[in-house]
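Translate structure to sequence.
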């Protein structure tokens, strides 16, 4: 959910306005809710648009197969991270406030035509004059064995945490990892929060070995010098995420007797 001066923006699953209900497709669409009137409408200003996934519909465009992150409102525009349909690239999108157009501002990842499928997650927040984003991908490759006549699946993982300057159009990649060979093996950053001169984030370490499930740690990144600092160790299991207020960090830790 993104909030501007006059309303709220959000994605939800919805069918088009087409009268042909048999072919009306359920899709992720962008909506706007006015604060004053409470009216909720498709975020698209094309006259007589059916909001059916055609490429010109701002709310449901088929140009982006997967709108990965929730939207964020920043300096008069709406931003989100999406996956392009034509080549699987991950891009930063900017929506005009009047719902007239979508602009690709930055390519975060170039698509890989050899990938069979993706699993991914992304987040974006605005803080200290920058858009801070994190993107992580699990890439599935099909490997043929000519001797056995069978196919296997190789899974490679990567992630990126970066800051986009809307004034210069430049991106600074702060943390990244590429092409790791183990499924869900990366300690990728999630749950971004901005407070003061820092960006806080959890580190997701989805090891199914000795740690017995998902374990997390909490770090922070200085907006002034780019240095990172660990606040809670990676072996601490966090329940219900965390939040920061001023210089204080609040989280609920699982009891040690239940962490085994």
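Result:
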């Amino acid at each position: 959910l993104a909030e501007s001066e006059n309303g709220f923006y959000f994605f939800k699953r919805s069918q088009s306005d087409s009268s042909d209900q048999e072919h009306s497709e359920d899709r992720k669409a962008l909506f706007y809710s006015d604060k004053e009137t409470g009216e909720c409408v498709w975020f698209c200003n094309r006259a007589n648009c059916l909001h059916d996934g055609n490429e010109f519909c701002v709310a449901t465009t088929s140009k982006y197969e997967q709108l990965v992150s929730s939207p964020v409102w920043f300096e008069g525009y709406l931003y989100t991270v999406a996956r392009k349909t034509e080549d699987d690239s991950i891009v930063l999108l900017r929506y005009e406030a009047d719902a007239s157009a979508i602009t690709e501002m930055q390519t975060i990842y170039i698509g890989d035509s050899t990938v069979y499928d993706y699993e991914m997650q992304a987040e974006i927040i605005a803080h200290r004059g920058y858009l801070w984003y994190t993107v992580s991908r699990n890439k599935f490759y099909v490997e043929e064995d000519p001797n056995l006549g069978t196919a296997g699946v190789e899974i490679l993982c990567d992630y990126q945490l970066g800051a986009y300057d809307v004034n210069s159009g430049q991106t600074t990649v702060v943390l990244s990892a590429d092409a790791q060979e183990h499924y869900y093996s990366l300690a990728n950053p999630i749950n971004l929060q901005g407070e003061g001169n820092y960006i806080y984030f959890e580190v997701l370490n989805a090891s199914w070995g000795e740690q017995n499930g998902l374990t997390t740690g909490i770090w922070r990144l200085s907006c002034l010098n780019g240095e990172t600092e660990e606040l809670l160790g990676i072996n601490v299991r966090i329940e219900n995420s965390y939040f920061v207020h001023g210089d204080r960090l609040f989280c609920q830790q699982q009891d040690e007797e239940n962490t085994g």
